Amino acid sequence: MFLDFGPVFEEWEADFGRTYVIGNDSSKNKLRDDIESAWLEGKDYFNSKSKITGAQLYAYCNELAKKYGWEFGGEIAGHIVGQYPHEKLEKEDKTNYIHPDNHTNMFDLNKKGENKHWILEIHFVDKEKEIGGFFEQLLA
Fold first, then answer.
1. Which residues pair with 16 in a beta bridge?
2. What is the pLDDT along the chain (140 residues), one digit of tens a residue?
3. CATH topology of domain 2-138
């Protein structure tokens, strides 16, 4: 199972997701471990860049899924967060997402001239086994 939380602390929103395995299924345990490892690799990749688009990071996350032997299961690989209420994460505006159609630099400032804060989401699936896992948190 995976849990996805979006709490609001005072005026700031958060987003946090984890996968948990009930029982001792080795495939599910591997999935849980792989998505956390892949998240850490995605963070390192992001932090190694001075310029990166949402499309580039999305492609990298898809490559991580292949590297670990899974399929990437998300339409996005993350999104911005900020002071609540946040900028609307409308599907029409791909610049708010780590998405294949976001060709803007993720390090660009927001409309208020502030740094953007990104949530990285790793969602791996195995369609044959009908299992999936999810790991997300702030890229900071």
1. 5
2. 766 766 676 766 667 688 889 999 999 999 999 999 999 999 999 999 999 999 999 999 999 999 999 999 999 999 888 654 445 555 567 888 899 999 999 999 988 898 888 999 999 999 999 999 999 998 97
3. Creatine Amidinohydrolase (3.90.230)
